[in-house]
Amino acid sequence: MLNTLPSPISSLLDTRIDGHSLPAGLYTREDVFQADMEVFFSRHWILLGLECDVPEPGDALVIDIGSTSLILLRDDDNEIRVVRNVCRHRGARLLDAGSTVVSKLVCPYHQWTYELSGKLSYAPHMGKDFDKSCRSLKAVNFKSISGLIYVCLSDNPPQDIKRLEEVMEPRLAPYDIRSAKVAHQLDVIEKGNWKLTMENNRECYHCSANHPELCVSFVDLDFGYDPYSLSPEDREEAEAHFAMYTERTRDWEADGFPSSPVEQVRNCETNFRTQRLIIAGAGESQTEDSTAASSKLLGTMTRKDLGDTHLWGHNSWCHFMGDHAVTSIAIPLSADTTLIRTTWLVHKDAVEGVDYDLAKLTHVWTETTKQDAELVARAQAGIQDPGYEPGVYSRFTEGALDDFASWYIERMRAHGY
């Protein structure tokens, strides 16, 4: 009788070849998905949301990560908190998924009531000797890095997030993301594994053929090219572009705006990359004509020529420009389904229809996200085909994918797989 049991996950990890995409089972198998949730979405820092998702005391946002449900909220002292959405009585969910406004957190089941600090204040019919002090809602480790809320569900979160904090706090300070306003939010379901989502985001090999809106403001050379495939004229143009990059980066940094690339992508726990990128065309913003979408610039910004400060994490990508910011968070729903939550941010005092046009603000990344969803679905369908075998990455345009796949293997090994 043939053995139909799946091979151990470790065997799949063993078969990965450097410079190649992952074996099919790492994108498709249910046991791998559960391991991914345990390792990458429980024991590592993930981007969960933004301080400006909950701008006022009493504002709360529920986000589900697998079987875990979290409440991001702002308490009565205007402090951010993240607590588990689990009543300390018999475990009922306190709030439904999505945004709401509350004065207290009241369990719908038996009316146990918690202050916004998480402290249990009311537990009817529990007797005079019942000790409420040890029944507070369970808090979750989190860090607000310039208004970006990172959480780790582990009691021993990775310490190397300090590097991310050290790099990004000064880079994002002028944008004042903590005080920004959510102008729009879009949820898109991708029919693909979360790793395919992240791989798709980490290369622009596919951009010129699939993202006409984005390519107005993106410079495809910035994401790699094969110098041997270029004509002498195109090679000269590429060399001139990168000479300009060196000069522009030097000028930005001389003006007090950190811009050089910083990578922590291998031999680490907290995976991230950041760089200030040149915006093509008019050079102001990621819009359909590359001009600013909002006349009221973010935070203390006074210039529109400071490019795009991008930030990658293992479940997110963000772009910060003078006039607005775009954050995208990937939340796995199943082995072949991923939620992408994209949020557009503007200055807290910007008024729609006066300071910014919502359609112009959102058009590029709305279209790009929909296009990427189609591409990820195609990739997932192909990987499920018996004809799939891991493909070789382009060393010119897909180096970041090799870094990501290698980091993925490293982290799985580190956690016993």
- Shape from CA axes? globular
- CATH architecture identity of the largest domain: Alpha-Beta Complex
Strand content: 15-25%
- Calculate Rg over CA atoms: 23 Å
- Work out the number of β strands: 17
Indicate the structural class: alpha+beta
User: How many domain regions?
Assistant: 2
Q: Main sheet, how many strands, which sense, barrel?
A: 7 strands, antiparallel
The level 1 CATH classification of the largest domain is: Alpha Beta
| Unreliable parts | none
Summed over residues and divided by their number, the pLDDT gives a mean of 96
Topology record:
Layout: H1 9-14, H2 25-28, H3 30-40, E1 46-50, E2 59-65, E3 68-74, E4 80-84, E5 98-101, E6 105-106, E7 113-114, E8 120-122, E9 141-145, E10 148-152, H4 161-172, E11 181-190, H5 194-201, H6 207-210, H7 232-254, E12 262-264, E13 272-277, E14 308-313, E15 316-320, E16 325-334, E17 337-346, H8 358-383, H9 399-414
Antiparallel strand pairs: 1-10, 2-3, 2-5, 3-4, 6-7, 7-8, 9-10, 11-17, 12-13, 13-14, 14-15, 15-16, 16-17
Helix pairs in contact: 5-8
In short:
InterPro entries: Rieske_2Fe-2S, Rieske_2Fe-2S_sf, Ring_hydroxy_dOase_asu_C_dom, Rng_hydr_dOase-A. By secondary structure, the protein is an alpha+beta fold.
Could you list some keywords that capture this structure?
417 residues; alpha+beta; Rieske Iron-sulfur Protein; Naphthalene 1,2-dioxygenase Alpha Subunit, Chain A, domain 1; seven-stranded antiparallel beta sheet; four-stranded antiparallel beta sheet; 17 strands; 26% helix
